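Dear colleagues,

As part of the handover before I leave the project, I'm documenting each prediction I ran so the next person doesn't have to rerun anything. This entry is a single chain, and its sequence is reproduced below.
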Amino acid sequence: MSGRARMLASLSVLVLGLVLLAPANGVLSLGQEKDGAEAQGKKDNNITVTGCLQKGSSDEAYTIAAPNGTSYQLTGGKVALKDHVGHKVTITGKPAKAEGGASPEGRLEVTNLKVVSTTCS
């Protein structure tokens, strides 16, 4: 076997080893959020979003937009959302159940709210 062939074989073994070990080390993590806005709490279906809390179209309707542009309609009987309209907040919640056959996509049932800033700027 020539020196070049031996070097190529060694390099192939090294690359194969890295490919096989990468998932075990988390190097090739697929499906991670790019901006980190929703990456927390995936094991228990929690979603965390930081953004400006806005009033919705009805008295109990609120929305928040993540930095990546994803917007969520919020529900939260346990958390006083109305007190934080216009604040930059971090919301943690679970995907809300669909109402009247509507899709639950884009709806969060808020379980926790943390004020980041009293302004949205």
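The first helix runs from residue 3 to 25. The chain is about 20% helix and 30% strand.

All the best with the project,
I.
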